[in-house]
Write a structure and sequence with these properties.
Elements: E1 2-6, E2 9-12, E3 17-24, E4 33-38, E5 45-50, E6 57-59, E7 67-72, E8 77-82, E9 91-98, E10 110-113, E11 117-122
Parallel strand pairs: 2-11
Antiparallel strand pairs: 1-3, 3-8, 4-5, 4-9, 5-6, 7-8, 9-10, 9-11
């Protein structure tokens, strides 16, 4: 499985961005997917995950109500819609494929990772 994240960029506080993660490989549609981020100088942290069918989603408290994760299995793509962005959302964002069908908040439960896309939110 290969994952290619895109959509990052520079945006002002209060703005929006939509990240995409295109996957290759047959296991995408039966696997949970997640988004994580790594702020400058900090450890990688959980942002959101979605189950294989898209019926179950989960968010970090810091992004709940502002970010929305979704997926299109026909296009092997997972999305992260980010609204009301804050400077503290500045980070490299990574998509990842879960070992299981639901996704999880734990980094160790993901076996494939994209290369990351940088999101910078200016104040």
């Amino acid at each position: 499985v290969q994952l290619q994240a895109s959509g990052g960029g520079l945006v002002q506080a209060g703005g929006s961005l939509r990240l995409s993660c295109a996957a290759s490989g047959r296991s995408f549609s039966t696997s949970g997917m997640g988004w994580f981020r790594q702020p400058p100088g900090k450890e990688r942290e959980f942002v959101a995950h979605i189950s294989w069918s898209g019926s179950i989603t989960n968010y970090a408290d810091s992004v709940k109500g502002r970010f929305t994760i979704s997926r299109d299995n026909a296009k092997n793509t997972v999305f992260l819609q980010m609204n009301s962005l804050k400077p503290e959302d500045t980070a490299v964002y990574y998509c990842a494929k879960a070992r299981g069908r639901s996704g999880t908040i734990y980094i160790r439960e993901y076996d494939y990772w994209g290369q990351g896309t940088l999101v910078t939110v200016s104040s």
